[in-house]
Amino acid sequence: MSRLENYVLKAYNKPIRECSDAELYRVLLDLVKDLGDGLPKHTTKKKLYYFSAEFLIGKLLSNNLLNLGIYDEVNNELIANGKSLLDIEEAENEPSLGNGGLGRLAACFMDSITTLGINGDGIGLNYHFGLFQQVFKHNNQLAVPDPWITEESWLNRNERRYQVKFKDYTFTSTLYDIDVFGYHHDKRNRLRLFDLESVTGDIIEEGTIHFDKSNIEENLTLFLYPDDSDHAGNLLRIYQQYFMVSNGAQLIIDEALDRGSNLRDLADYAVIQINDTHPALVIPEMVRLLTERGLSFDESVEIVRNMTAFTNHTILSEALEKWPMSDLDEVIPEIAKIIRRLDEKMKAEFPGNHAVAIIDGHGRAHMAHMAIHYGFSINGVARLHSDILKDTELRHFYDIYPDKFNNKTNGITFRRWIMDANPELADTLDSLISPEWRDTADLKPLLEYKDDKAVITKLRAVKFNNKLRLKKHLKTSQGVDINEHSIIDIQIKRIHEYKRQQMLALYIIHKYFDIKNGNVPKTPITILFGGKAANAYTIARDIIHMILTLSQIIDNDPEVSPHLKVVFVENYNVTHAQYLIPAADISEQISLASKEASGTGNMKFMLNGALTLCTMDGANVEIAERVGQENIYTFGRDSQDIVNLYATNGYNAPDYYYRDRIKPLVDFILSPGMLYLGDEERLRRLHHDISTKDYFMALIDLEEFIDVKEKMYADYEDHDNWSRRTLINIANAGYFSSDRTINDYNRDIWHLEQEHQDIKE
Ligand SMILES: *Cc1c(COP(=O)(O)O)cnc(C)c1O
């Protein structure tokens, strides 16, 4: 009897074919957890702790089966019994532990860390309701809780407890672990997610994500990034961050002591990577814990400096956290005291250098500054981004610590983003270039087939099947019908002005006019958006409203709808992404140059055979370098132009708004049809913003964007050449494997023992 049959029989006393998908899910969960329990633990002396406010891990069942090497065995057995793994995975809730690129990066990294045989855990919080679940109603985004924790989750309760002391409370934490399995690797790591037992969803107002922000005991781990537009919201963010890092720091010390550390040598036992500034309070907390255990302040500071590294993810000033010292005093006075001492120490070393102060003239503590002074490494996440940090945003730090600065271009795990999300393409690659790429991420041998007509045709057939799969998925998930024979053109990412979803919307208006004028596209076009807007970010919600309203106008217009369809995918998450990306022909990466630190969506699309339409921003620059200008579509001002424009206040929106090709597009937002279907206040506010302020310069590159898009659609009509260029993109995606990224982190920053090392490039 097979392992699966055995489990099924024990649990339900019936054969596989008589079980429901939910029953099979439960059995597979148990089977995987038991297999995990049987794996050996890491025994190396030094261990990595990856601190992150989010881990956007996606559903885990099929990925765990893949990494444990039993995917095919289980899948085949299920098929033989009339079952499908894809259907069974419907029973799994996607964990609401993250929200965007930064959290997805942390998830890819955990997969690669484990696959490379590195001893390393992720440290975070066990949010009960995530960011929120996005629901569309009357063309508006509504936010409701996104519950995911059930009996059948991947969480394993751990018996560890820690005391976390705030000014007004002392909490006893609970800890949940989620096993992380490496591909072809037998040692597992864990996500360590801290929680508080007294937290309850009962305090949330029905149908909203509002709750009493001052009720810390009951709200602490309810939501990721709770609304911080008022004082109580700011304090709650500090409560969350400190709760995460205090637990994490205590865990590090305990585990190091267990492995034989005497604390003075702690930096030989642990290295901390801080993913963005949210976990930066781990620095003063670790100093506090070490001094409490009898080390001097200066000695503790040096230990912490030698074990902490910081990853910067943004140059957007709004996202660089600065906490008023008065807020820190209100929540964690002991930590505030240590931050003041760290600030004094640094000011004594660099007298008069105000640009690098931790506490500024307004009494605000800059978390990034603290992490740079009191860590040994700071990295950006794509080459261009790291250069901008050195030359512009953090140049005063680069002047004093040139050796701390380094670049680590982001990556994505090929296990999830091709093997799991696009099995047909993965199998095709196996048969063309041998399955070795699954371990090495080396796809270059595919280039040999770039002029092979049969291979090109096969790639197009795979793309078509993925479009069919997406069609079915969208039909069941939101009742939408898309044309599988259309060009699939996708922009999926957080809704933010700098990501310029407005530009693609304005292009759609252009296309709408064009079709009304009788210029019908040869192949129909489907443009898909996905992404959440922060609930308090009004203009971002206005953008969603505009796109949903526009989509309705097009659907209602029989002249246009056969040729153009616009879909806003509701509640974009990893599950949707795994259907969307393999089906895409066009990957929209149109941020305002200099503002997108790296992007990782761009890498997933490339790997899955979409052609990129992009500004020269973030990792797009490195993608363009690898595929060559003839296999990518770039447009727009470059980052240097944009940095200069900001420095000189050189952009004036009306200069662009009044242009003949632009004004009618922007004004369509206030057309009678839009106002009839839409919310006048939202549409007017958006129109006013774009035509007068346009802080992220959506209009500056619009004309060029329209021209390049037209060229791209025209080029699509040469099907063979298009597919040939998708092959070249796939073949050059190997560099963007997160195994390569993690290899770089380990070589330059962590210096941990590594059991697997077969990374190309
Ligand atoms: C990859 C990914 C992101 C990040 O996308 P970018 O285009 O890099 O911003 C966000 N959300 C999900 C669900 C993802 O899979």
TrEMBL record:
PROSITE patterns: PHOSPHORYLASE. It is an enzyme of class 2 (transferase). It comes from the Bacteria. Keywords: Allosteric enzyme, Carbohydrate metabolism, Glycosyltransferase, Pyridoxal phosphate, Transferase. The modification N6-(pyridoxal phosphate)lysine is found at K604. GO terms for cellular component: cytoplasm. It catalyses: [(1->4)-alpha-D-glucosyl](n) + phosphate = [(1->4)-alpha-D-glucosyl](n-1) + alpha-D-glucose 1-phosphate. InterPro entries: Glycg_phsphrylas (IPR011833), Glyco_trans_35 (IPR000811), Pyridoxal_P_attach_site (IPR035090). The keyword Transferase applies. One of its GO terms (molecular function) is pyridoxal phosphate binding. Its cofactor is pyridoxal 5'-phosphate. One of its GO terms (biological process) is glycogen catabolic process. Its EC number is 2.4.1.1. The keyword Transferase applies. Allosteric enzyme that catalyzes the rate-limiting step in glycogen catabolism, the phosphorolytic cleavage of glycogen to produce glucose-1-phosphate, and plays a central role in maintaining cellular and organismal glucose homeostasis. Belongs to the glycogen phosphorylase family. This is Alpha-1,4 glucan phosphorylase. It comes from Suicoccus acidiformans.
